[in-house]
Amino acid sequence: MIKRFAGKAVCLTTLMSGLLLTSAAQADLKGWNGHPPDYPVSVAMDQFGKLVSERTDGRIGVKTYHSAQLGEQDDAIEQIQFGGIDFAVFNLVPLNNIVPQTQATTLPYAFKSVEHMHRVMDGPVGADIAAAMESANLVGLAWYDSGARSFYANKPLNSIQDLKGVKIRVQNSDVNVAMVEALGANATPIPYGEVYTAIQSGVVDGAENNWPSYESSGHYEAAKHYILDQHTIVPEVFVVNKGTWDKLSAEDKEIVRTAALESAQLQRTLWAEREAKSEELVRAAGNTIVELEDKSAFIDAMKPVYEQFASDPKVRSILDRIQAVE
Ligand code: BDP
After folding, report:
1. Beta bridge partners of 170
2. pLDDT tens across 179-200, in order?
3. Whose C-alpha lies nearest to ligand 1, atom 2?
4. Where would I find the beta strands (DSSP E) of the chain?
5. How many CB atoms lie within 10 A of CB 94?
6. Disulfide: which of 157, 169, 246, 318 matches 207 by Cβ 3.0-4.6 Å?
């Protein structure tokens, strides 16, 4: 008797927790983020979650896991593609080898300025790049800012010549490898979270990134020479797994899309503030910052990269359209 009763009780508990789990899983959107909680991307993603919960009266709960708690970027992107993670924000470089159209936005000097990048991405070109991502199971909802990226190393970088033979960490992208090799440097793809140690232990001499990442990652402590060649202005995308997106009602899709777009507006304001703060902090730490009045040596060195990647008609046509935007 007791045995049978106990068995039933276990069954009931299992059933109940199963039901609870199912309803929690349906309600929760799980987000990946590689940056610390006070970073502009992180604050904006939290704001996205808040807006979605408020506007659905708590029906859709949202949680973003910061600081790469859910894994390094490339692994996270795989998870977002198959639905283990519902949404994320990251720059377009790791999509280069997955969605060729994104290469046009990460080619060196493709954009004239950050404002130009926003005009392009907020318009039809950005919409077409987002549409191309659907083949990779990703629905792009909004574009965040991430400024311009420049090189840094633990040895002086006063001009393009100083990059020769220097070991530079890159994100996992053929375009980035080609870009670094075109400068006569050696490219090593390494996940973001491992770069600090890689510089410290001499696996690489340096890397490349924007002011806030250079500062918040602590790379500025390990690689004190920063040369502002501003080779790329890479958009960051707010993506949702296609399966997660398709399951949302039309009304919830609208709520989620609007919240993502509003979070992007907030992120862009926070970004400008953080860029200035990070620069101040790095300069105060005594790092060597080299400004380049004339970037033509860098621009010229990138010709082979364009020959290699812009010859793909998918990339070429996006690039032509980027260049046609004023
Ligand atoms: C940061 C981007 C992030 C990249 C990282 C990197 O925000 O998406 O993962 O650079 O270099 O600026 O890997």
Report:
1. 189
2. 999 999 999 999 999 999 999 9
3. 91
4. 28-32, 61-65, 87-91, 138-144, 149-153, 167-170, 186-189, 206-209, 225-232, 236-241, 288-291
5. 22
6. 169
Which residue among 73, 175, 179, 192 is best mutated to probe the pocket of ligand 1, counting the most ligand atoms within 8 A of its Cβ?
192
pLDDT (0 to 100) of residue 4: 40
- Ligand 1: atom nearest CA of 41 is 7
- Distance CA(248)–CA(297), nearest Å, equals 50
**Predicted pLDDT at 20:** 45
For residue 295, count other CB atoms closer than 10 A to its CB.
15
Length of the chain: 326
Place of tokens 């990946």: 32
Q: What is the DSSP letter of 33?
A: -
171 Cβ closer than 6 Å to some ligand 1 atom: yes
Strand bridging mode 138-144 / 236-241:
antiparallel
Mean pLDDT per block of 10 residues along the chain (326 residues) reads 39 43 57 98 98 96 97 97 98 97 98 98 98 98 98 98 98 98 98 98 98 98 98 98 97 98 98 98 98 97 97 97 97
Ligand 1 atom closest to residue 191's alpha carbon, by position in its atom list: 13
* Domains of the chain, each with CATH number or no CATH: 28-146+234-277 (3.40.190.170), 148-232+285-321 (3.40.190.170)
CA pair distance 300, 28, nearest whole angstrom? 49
Kindly state if the Cβ of 232 falls inside 6 Å of ligand 1. no
How many whole angstroms from 40 Cα to the centroid of ligand 1? 13
- Take atom 1 of ligand 1 and give the residue whose Cα is closest: 213
Establish whether residue 213 lines the binding site of ligand 1, counting it when its CB lies within 6 angstroms of any ligand atom.
Answer: yes
